[in-house]
Amino acid sequence: MPYLLLRGLSHSASAFLLLLLTACAEAPAQPLAIVQSAAPASPAVSAPKPPLSFEEWRMLLRSDAIAAGIDAELFDRTFAGITLDPRVVTSDSSQPEFTRPVWEYIDGAVSVSRVAQGRLLKAQHRPTLKAIRSAYAVDHEVLIAIWGMESNFGSNIGSHNVIRSLATLAYDGRRQVFWRSQLLAALQILQAGDGPEQGLIGSWAGAMGQTQFMPTTFNQHAVDFDGDGRRDLWGSAPDALASAAHYLQASGWENGQPWGFEVNLPQGFDYALADPEVRRSLTQWRELGVKPTRAIDANDTSLATLFLPAGHRGPAFLLLNNFRSILRYNNSTAYALAIGLLSDALDGNPGVQAAWPRNDRQLGRSERIELQELLASKGYEPGPADGIIGANTRKAVRAFQQSLGQPADGYPSHQLLEQLR
Ligand code: CA
User: Fold this and answer.
1) For labeling, which of 86, 147, 158, 345 is most exposed (least CB within 10 Å)?
2) Domain carrying residue 196
3) Is residue 353, in this structure, part of any structural domain at all?
4) How far is the CA of 208 from the centre of ligand 1 (A)?
5) How far is 228 from 237, CA to CA, in rounded Å?
6) 144-201 residue pLDDT tens
7) Residue 78 Cα, ligand 1 centroid: separation in angstroms?
């Protein structure tokens, strides 16, 4: 879902953050996808328990909505019978101890059946995809991959009343300012006549349609590509695919360029270079002995970062600009990697060559917090002990690894935790 960042993790999501985030409800297709795209980084508002009743809050919202141009009659009709949804509150506040390892997530995302279905649909929709590429300069495969990941090609678009979900989050959730803006955007969609007859249906967090757009993303990027006068992301595959293309185009997609590719690293490689802040040209990486595992057609001057999603014992990838465009869609590196690998498979390319360290035990949330506390107690500076492995924690892990003379991949392994203990 081009989604937004639940719980404010948005744009700080880093290489390993993906392992730490919670699932986006009810989307078997994207169990790790935490963060949903589009959302402009809105400030995390730590609001106290709302002093207003839901009814009082709704009346204030009504005034704001009318001031913003929403028809009063539409507001009243839409909110008739709307109550708080306790399931949404539960989903928003859950902090699971364990999340799936990245290789399990990739296995599920790039399954044999999904690749087969995606190839079939790519062939069936070829004329539409060609027209979309002419209009927005976005490759076929990435659109089919997004379609597959977001809604299993339109078959799983969620079943929540989006107005009810967003009202619940805006009233009772964290980041109320963000949710309120999404709610007002959802009302604008209804006012524009784009919503389906049965109302706005979506995920518990308000992501809608076959490409799971948040309401603000919808208003900015959804397009009517089949020409029936409605931006119908629920029922029209051409509208959904073209809207995803329009959004990727706005996110800087470079048509015909790879998202990235798997590489082999030379003996004695300095793993500290595998850092989102270290960007080198493909020529420079080659000079360091970093070699693609297959022939790649990309500009030598393109800047790339080196990504080790499972640490130095797992596969390595160079990531190009298009990877960042996918992250704008959904700010999770696991998600973007899955989209890239699924696109490759749809294009007939082989899968990941190196073995994943499948015997590694992932740190749970409480262990990640312990890791951060131990690093801090030893004089490293991992940032707040929140269980989220961001840039500061990764730096601290690297420094500790270097003090032990170990490969400084910044990866928070179970072995590292044992050494800290
Ligand atoms: Ca349409």
Assistant:
1) 86
2) 1-27+50-251
3) no
4) 15
5) 13
6) 999 999 999 999 999 999 999 999 999 987 889 999 999 999 999 999 999 888 899 9
7) 22
